[in-house]
């Protein structure tokens, strides 16, 4: 139940008595589904005061609305919207403006959900809710947090984060070089706007992170794909001859192919950026979850050790290590970009939610984040093993797992059998979300020579993995039979 506010009701226009005008104004709110079933209307006294009319005027309007079934009076409680409108009353879905790129449209319509196998979703069942709630509660009653604050981000959070990043990812920074953003997503936009002119070419991995492709399209840059092959990864050689002045990569767990760059490859790219005065965005979105080996030092940290981090923009997110809905991410930028990036952050969204930032700073400082990550690393590794075991048992040689043992997803490829889109569609009909490879590369499987799909296991309970994969196998075979 929500309380309805009188909002923009205006009785100065229209025909009839004030009471009739009020009746029509409220009825049109209900018919337009702006005031929804079971929501509580303002009391007659309050509404009369707000609209500057007599209480009788409001009472008459309410009585008429009750008589016609739009609202109901509940004894001792007040008036509530009573009508559940049939579908045809709702406005049709808006249509995207012409000129919107295919890629953006495809991703806008992609089913963003937290259902089974939807990639990129963290486990929600094991989050330390009570502890997080207690920390948040401590900050909720602090009046100082309620005003405007530094657009760069809450200083205590930036300080805690700089220590976390230094000790866990060898990132070379202090708080003055960190900008807190609305997820990694915003950091990616800021990084492009701060370093590139409209129309410039941006090199990025292909297949690659679809939302980064969306940023490139929407901000009016040119997309220059760099091939990522299964197992062997990024085509570094081709980068040497590219004219793009910025390269976006996910070097520790390439999304979605699940390859990683070794130290030699990282050094080669750092050298390319430094000698040619190019920028690299290092998206380090899930490197805390490496299961087979120790994670590689971040490229930013590697470059920093050599005093060469002036060309690296390091981007991170709390979506995987905490939860997606937190919408907090960050960027570590070279000194020369700090002021322009902060100005862009200020212009795009102002400051970030301060209570959440203050709570997160505590969560990092008291060791809770690291404890949570350790626990989740064990859990995700178990889920990963279960996924691999079941995929091998169910599919045998029909599919190949091409992603490394890391992160929250598994990438499959196959040559014979169901079309990747068809499989995703059949799965979606049963409430299972898998992403066809073309979501990440815009290529049909014919052009690519193989078919692929990405399965996220982060938010799938261990106990459900076998049965969900069994359903997927059934659909896989069903698709071949057609
Ligand atoms: C490659 C990549 N980068 C970054 C992110 C995190 O983005 P955000 O912080 O906006 O949730 C994701 C999430 O799925 C991702 O896959």
Automatic annotation (TrEMBL):
<keyword id="KW-0805">Transcription regulation</keyword>
<dbReference type="GO" id="GO:0003700">
    <property type="term" value="F:DNA-binding transcription factor activity"/>
</dbReference>
<dbReference type="InterPro" id="IPR051446">
    <property type="entry name" value="HTH_trans_reg/aminotransferase"/>
</dbReference>
<dbReference type="GO" id="GO:0030170">
    <property type="term" value="F:pyridoxal phosphate binding"/>
</dbReference>
<dbReference type="InterPro" id="IPR015424">
    <property type="entry name" value="PyrdxlP-dep_Trfase"/>
</dbReference>
<dbReference type="GO" id="GO:0003677">
    <property type="term" value="F:DNA binding"/>
</dbReference>
<dbReference type="InterPro" id="IPR036388">
    <property type="entry name" value="WH-like_DNA-bd_sf"/>
</dbReference>
<dbReference type="InterPro" id="IPR015421">
    <property type="entry name" value="PyrdxlP-dep_Trfase_major"/>
</dbReference>
<comment type="similarity">
    <text>In the C-terminal section; belongs to the class-I pyridoxal-phosphate-dependent aminotransferase family.</text>
</comment>
<feature type="domain" description="HTH gntR-type">
    <location>
        <begin position="16"/>
        <end position="84"/>
    </location>
</feature>
<protein>
    <submittedName>
        <fullName>Aminotransferase class I/II-fold pyridoxal phosphate-dependent enzyme</fullName>
    </submittedName>
</protein>
<dbReference type="GO" id="GO:0008483">
    <property type="term" value="F:transaminase activity"/>
</dbReference>
<keyword id="KW-0808">Transferase</keyword>
<dbReference type="InterPro" id="IPR000524">
    <property type="entry name" value="Tscrpt_reg_HTH_GntR"/>
</dbReference>
<keyword id="KW-0238">DNA-binding</keyword>
<dbReference type="InterPro" id="IPR036390">
    <property type="entry name" value="WH_DNA-bd_sf"/>
</dbReference>
<keyword id="KW-0663">Pyridoxal phosphate</keyword>
<dbReference type="InterPro" id="IPR004839">
    <property type="entry name" value="Aminotransferase_I/II_large"/>
</dbReference>
<keyword id="KW-0804">Transcription</keyword>
<dbReference type="Pfam" id="PF00155">
    <property type="entry name" value="Aminotran_1_2"/>
</dbReference>
<keyword id="KW-0032">Aminotransferase</keyword>
<dbReference type="Pfam" id="PF00392">
    <property type="entry name" value="GntR"/>
</dbReference>
